[in-house]
């Protein structure tokens, strides 16, 4: 999973996330959290502050810092939080089984949907019992990844428009 301890979306579900992770770790699930944000952009997202978070909330899973952002680029999370669940296939190689949200709860939701971890829980249960994971997975909603400034042109190149293509920008 990709999380940022400062992201309001992560803060909103932190307690439920920790509880869910501990529950599934007891069932043998391996869990790793990765902080993807650049300390060039946000110095407060560095390893020292992450360690304070681990100690304050008692994380029982590794919370890693992606200093080069190579891992983050490889997984391409949509933001924080974002969840990835892998299972071993017939060749005993890991394959992606789930990439999506924790659940439908949002701190700004007027319906006040409770935090349950439903979507992630269903995926984890399916993987642990050898059943297929529902292919209809909802994207996570959260905070944008803060990229190293030198990576932005590589990750988000400006489109090259032909002279005749400029009219397309203004037509519906």
From TrEMBL:
Residue span, Alkyl hydroperoxide reductase subunit C/ Thiol specific antioxidant domain: 15-89
Pfam families the record matches: AhpC-TSA
GO molecular function: antioxidant activity; oxidoreductase activity
InterPro entries: AhpC/TSA (IPR000866), PRX-like1 (IPR047262), Thioredoxin-like_sf (IPR036249)
PANTHER family from the UniProt entry: OS07G0260300 PROTEIN, THIOREDOXIN-DEPENDENT PEROXIREDOXIN
UniProt-recorded name of the protein: Alkyl hydroperoxide reductase subunit C/ Thiol specific antioxidant domain-containing protein
